[in-house]
Amino acid sequence: MKVKDTYKTIKSPSEEVLFKDKNSKFFGYAFPVTSEAAIKQHLETLKAQHHSARHWCYAYQLGKIEKSIQFRANDDGEPNNSAGMPIYGQIQSFDVTDILIVVVRYFGGVKLGVSGLINAYKSAAQLALENSEIITKTINVPYLITFEYKDMNKVMRLIKEKNLKIVDQKLELTCEITISVRLKQAEKTYNSFNSIYGVEIRELTL
User: Fold this and answer.
1) How sure is the predictor about 176, in pLDDT bands with cuts at 50, 70 and 90?
2) Which residue windows are transmembrane per the record (predicted)?
3) What does the radius of gyration of the chain's CA atoms come to, in whole angstroms?
4) Does the N terminus or the C terminus of the chain have fewer Cβ atoms within 10 A?
5) Distances (CA, A) of 146 to 6, 190, 201
């Protein structure tokens, strides 16, 4: 089975975009995020910035591999599934993750109906994504390698051979090196270090 070890996200926050329908204004924003705390922070900032708006609807998705994906869609007072899910639909359509999209609505005095709302929130989210730079990143597994100083050459040779990225190192009598390995190479790399006498390797949880 082929291991998927890349994912798409956005490089930086998008420019503000605007979609209008019957005097209602829908401002769209996309942010790269990796935690719920960051999501909360962006929402608070936008609520302060658009304090006279009527609705702050959003959707987000966190996680790189299927089993760890978390997502949420919020209608923020709009009719059920008329705002959050159309925004989330665009996240799925562009196949991006670690992302928050917020659409801020100023009511223009004319009701749009559910189908009008769905179209407006979807369009604002789509514009925000089209105005973002989408990048592909690799999914990496962090490992901590522990060994005695005398085994340094063996470990370093293997790191060089496999062209592994060192994230952190503490080289004393007992040495610790943290490496980052692409998911598809993770098992093989683990086995290589695990087979060296006196060297311990374990996966770190982020």
Assistant:
1) very high
2) none
3) 23
4) N
5) 28, 13, 6
The dihedral through the CA atoms of 135, 136, 139, 143 has a sign that is: negative
How many Å apart are CA 118 and CA 178, to the nearest integer? 47
Helix (H) or strand (E) holding 105: strand 99-106
Q: Do residues 79 and 117 make contact, with C-beta atoms less than 8 angstroms apart? A: yes
DSSP bridge partners of 59: 73, 101
Give the separation between CA 72 and CA 83, rounded to whole angstroms. 12
pTM given for the model: 0.81
Helices H, strands E: what count in the chain?
Answer: 5, 11
CATH T-level assignment (fold) for domain 139-203: Alpha-Beta Plaits (3.30.70)
At position 74, the amino acid (one-letter code) is N
CATH of domain 6-137: 3.30.230.30
What's the rounded Cα separation, in Å, for the pair 74 and 124? 15
Spans of all domains in the chain: 6-137, 139-203
Q: Name which of 31, 79, 26 is nearest 50 in CA terms.
A: 26
Rounded CA gap, 192 and 147, in Å? 14
Nearest alpha-carbon partner for 56 in 81, 16, 83, 89: 83
Burial string for 25-39 (b: 16+ CB within 10 Å, else e) reads bbbbbbbbbeeeebb
User: Tokens 């407006």 map to which residue?
Assistant: 120
